[in-house]
Automatic annotation (TrEMBL):
<feature type="transmembrane region" description="Helical">
    <location>
        <begin position="285"/>
        <end position="304"/>
    </location>
</feature>
<dbReference type="InterPro" id="IPR050189">
    <property type="entry name" value="MFS_Efflux_Transporters"/>
</dbReference>
<feature type="transmembrane region" description="Helical">
    <location>
        <begin position="217"/>
        <end position="239"/>
    </location>
</feature>
<feature type="domain" description="Major facilitator superfamily (MFS) profile">
    <location>
        <begin position="8"/>
        <end position="399"/>
    </location>
</feature>
<keyword id="KW-1133">Transmembrane helix</keyword>
<feature type="transmembrane region" description="Helical">
    <location>
        <begin position="310"/>
        <end position="330"/>
    </location>
</feature>
<dbReference type="InterPro" id="IPR011701">
    <property type="entry name" value="MFS"/>
</dbReference>
<dbReference type="Pfam" id="PF07690">
    <property type="entry name" value="MFS_1"/>
</dbReference>
<keyword id="KW-0812">Transmembrane</keyword>
<feature type="transmembrane region" description="Helical">
    <location>
        <begin position="102"/>
        <end position="126"/>
    </location>
</feature>
<dbReference type="InterPro" id="IPR005829">
    <property type="entry name" value="Sugar_transporter_CS"/>
</dbReference>
<feature type="transmembrane region" description="Helical">
    <location>
        <begin position="42"/>
        <end position="62"/>
    </location>
</feature>
<protein>
    <submittedName>
        <fullName>Bacillibactin exporter</fullName>
    </submittedName>
</protein>
<dbReference type="InterPro" id="IPR020846">
    <property type="entry name" value="MFS_dom"/>
</dbReference>
<keyword id="KW-0472">Membrane</keyword>
<keyword id="KW-1003">Cell membrane</keyword>
<feature type="transmembrane region" description="Helical">
    <location>
        <begin position="74"/>
        <end position="96"/>
    </location>
</feature>
Length: 409
């Protein structure tokens, strides 16, 4: 990797880190917030979902705008909007207390608008920054590690902030966003390839054949990305509820326990990103292996749900390992298989589908809390198995030293 790119990559990596902190740190505190705001588990889960739903809609638009006007010009204003959204939620909680639920949701909606134009643009930006495919894969691995490291820190930081005040998690968001804005403003140089302005009609004419030619494997990766995040956030929500309601863990203890499987996911993402290089077949089979491991872990969770806590955590960690192996491979397949001019839009659709998983996981699992453990975890395992089958059938990279366009037909 080029030496002068390290500081730029560090600045870019703060975006998924800060955006993840601004969302995932609510996971351990949702039960407490539900009690304070006098809402049901489903309603409290909407604090995660509303953020993700609005991002799902706006991410493809942000991707197109980043292809046309440049990544940095879209990312920085988006981070500012996300910070304002956090401020709205925080001030609503401070001023209205337990009557602030509706305004908190409105602030989370605004934060989702900002998130749509920030974190998803990181993937194509990393693709723009490096010329060698191995450097792109390594950079994407670091970005995915930053994302997952944010998930590791989130339950701990969220628990610590609530020791100050239950609404402190909202007021921390503008601070996180300000850090990323300053680092991007001073450290990130706009890659020369950016800024080429194309009309929407001309852009559509170039993208339409792309999906006709490569739609099979692209849509497969979109679906698998959604499945991975659905399983992850659904499991985290379930684990948070179980630790508090069944075992009586809360605060920093619960946050630290939630960080254990996420640490495994983070380490797996980093190692995988370093290992895959430009080997597309390896990316495919690591994706298949990761999803299969997740499936087996979910089956194991149905057995250990009411037994020893250590066994339950072991299976959750195994599931995190599987997701951590799959995600960097999906990132690399998307980024390295698409030309720079269309990379922002295509990778943003992929990010949008990941947000679909984030949005669906907590509320759907909350509705299934009354199910038996077998019914819940076997259902989740079946969804993971769908991802395995999709990867095997639809992702067919060719081996050899070919161009990205040739390797992924």
């Amino acid at each position: 990797m080029e030496q002068n790119k390290h500081s730029e990559l560090a600045a870019v990596s703060t975006v998924p880190l800060m955006m993840t902190l601004g969302n995932s740190m609510f996971i351990p505190v949702l039960p407490m917030m539900g009690k304070i705001l006098h809402v049901s588990p489903f309603q409290s889960s909407l604090l995660i979902t509303v953020y993700s739903v609005v991002a799902i809609v706006l991410i493809p638009i942000a991707g197109y705008l980043s292809d046309r006007y440049g990544r940095k010009k879209i990312m920085i204003p988006s981070l500012i909007i996300a910070g304002v959204g956090g401020l709205v939620s925080g001030l609503a909680a401070v001023l209205l207390g337990d009557r602030s639920y509706a305004l908190i949701l409105a602030g989370r909606f605004l934060q989702g608008v900002g998130a749509a134009g920030a974190a998803p643009i990181v993937l194509p930006l990393v693709g723009d920054m490096f010329k060698k495919g191995s450097d792109v894969s390594s950079g994407l691995g670091i970005v995915e590690t930053s994302n997952t490291f944010g998930k590791v820190l989130s339950p701990i930081i969220g628990s610590l902030l609530t020791m100050i005040a239950w609404y402190a998690v909202f007021l921390a968001i503008p601070v996180f966003c300000a850090v990323s804005v300053l680092l991007l403003a001073f450290l990130l140089k706009v890659p020369q390839q950016q800024g080429k302005r194309v009309t929407f009609h001309a852009f559509y004419e170039s993208v339409s054949p792309l999906f006709k030619q490569k739609g099979r494997w692209l849509f497969a990766i979109f679906l698998i990305g959604a499945i991975g995040m659905f399983e992850l956030f659904g499991l985290l929500f379930y684990l948070s509820e179980m630790l508090e309601e069944r075992y009586g863990f809360d605060g920093i203890v619960k946050g630290s326990l939630l960080a254990v499987p996420l640490s495994v996911l983070c380490l797996a993402s980093y190692i995988t990103g370093k290992a895959i290089g430009e080997n597309k077949p390896l990316m495919k089979w690591l994706t298949v292996s990761g999803l299969l491991l997740l499936c087996l872990a979910l089956v194991g969770l149905s057995w250990f749900n009411a037994r020893a806590l250590w066994g339950f955590f072991g299976f959750v960690a195994a599931g995190g390992l599987g997701i951590g192996v799959a995600l960097p491979c999906l990132d690399a397949l998307i980024t390295e298989g698409i030309e720079k001019e269309q990379r922002g839009t295509v990778s943003s659709i992929y990010s949008s589908m990941r947000f679909v998983g984030v949005a669906a996981g907590p509320p759907l699992v909350s509705l299934a809390l009354d199910w038996t453990a077998g019914a819940l975890f076997y259902s989740l395992a079946a969804i993971s198995l769908l991802g395995v089958a999709t990867a095997v059938v639809a992702i067919k990279p060719k081996n050899g030293r070919q161009t990205a366009r040739q390797r992924l037909p």
